[in-house]
Amino acid sequence: FTFTCPTSAERSSDSLTNFVFDLDLLNKACAEVNIKIIFLLDEAKRVLNDRFTRGFQDNIFALLYGDSELRPVPLSFVFAGAQHLYKLSEDSTSPIGSRAAPIIIRNLTKDNILEYCIHYLGENESSAQLYADFVYKETGGHAGLMNRVVEEISGTTDTPFNAEEISKIVQSRNIGLLDNWISSLTSEAICVAGSLSHVQSLSLGDVAQHLVSAGLNRFLATRVIEEICYTGIAIFVQKRVFPANQLFW
Fold first, then answer.
1. pLDDT in tens, 229-246
2. Phi, psi of 114, deg, nearest 5
3. Of 44, 57, 140, 222, most Cβ neighbours within 10 A?
């Protein structure tokens, strides 16, 4: 079963009706199987800019909270993104942002990475520990970068472990990704990241003070800590933020 996306010329007020009709066809095709559909909208910034009209959000709102006839099957929507999702939650007039539940994705822990290394590399716990410690130090538990480092390690398990060489290879192959992280940080996050690069850790009060010194809004301190944590370059432990992800720094 496939969904077809209408062209600009075909978009009209009845596009929502057509979409619901397609959902109903899908539901009937599943016969007695009870289904639930979860739509994942990755790179949410693409649907929050001018490419999609406000009517797009209105249609999603109608699917979620409108008349029951619009929901022939149970539906959920997940918007995935980083800083851009703040715009959605800040807009009190947004039909989605006013009811959405935000979830901040944290870095993986050392134990998570050890388990991943055991399964991915096919090593026992004792031998995988060496790799896991290195991966955690290099990535800080950032899931995507962790996977890339482990992939690189997987081709070297039969030779003596060369941490410096692996680090150089991963960094060279992902320099574009690291540049994208930097360019995507808000001005407040860049300010705090610069301060964090010279110390071992910062408290919430320290973050607020650095913002004040830079002429920025100190009341964004909590949000800045969230931002540098969910982008994978820091961790927040016992009310202090620490730099993580050695590859980034």
1. 888 889 898 899 999 888
2. -60, -45
3. 140
